[in-house]
Amino acid sequence: MPDGELADHIPQLREAIQELLADTAISTIVTLDEDGYDHHPDHIAVHDAVTGLTPDGGNRQRRLWLLDSAHQGEHIVTGDPKRKLGAMACHTSQFDLVNDAAYWTQTSPYAPLFTRETYRAA
């Protein structure tokens, strides 16, 4: 699906996620909140696709957690910023936008995520 155009492909995205879930024993899904964390249209589309998944006939119960852009969720995850930067570097389409660790950990709107993530149950 084209980058920047996921909102035009939510049914296909939802179907692809549903197929993946049918073939795995995933019990917890973590996705972005309704604001897409940063209001990016692709991030909002992912939220819409995931939260619109149909139940799998009751065979499995899945927990759904949303990354809370208001930073008021009840579940807090802290982590090592270097590990997060390393994981992000694996996604070159994202990291190449700004290949500067100081930007990501201090200046960017995502800087708070490098030390503390807040989630809430959907």
* Beta-strand content estimate: 15-25%
User: Structural class, from helix and strand content?
Assistant: alpha+beta
Strands, count: 4
Nearest-integer average pLDDT? 82
Largest sheet: 4 strands, mixed
Q: Report the span from N to C terminus.
A: 26 Å
Order of helices and strands: HEHEEHHHE
Shape: globular
Can you tell me the residue ranges where pLDDT is under 50 for at least 5 consecutive residues? none
What is the CA-atom radius of gyration, in angstroms? 15 Å
Major sheet strand order = 1-2-4-3
Number of helices: 5
Helix content range of the residues, please? 25-40%
Provide a concise account of the structure shown.
The chain has 5 helices and 4 strands. With 122 residues, the protein is an alpha+beta fold.
What keyword list fits this structure?
122 residues, 36% helix, single chain, 5 helices, globular, 4 strands, alpha+beta
